[in-house]
Amino acid sequence: MGLITQVLTLPLAPVRGVGWVLDQVVQTAEREYYDPAPVRAELRELEQALLDGRIDEDEFDRREDELLDRLAWLEERWREIGGDGRTTTETR
Question: What is the pTM of this model?
Answer without folding.
Answer: 0.64
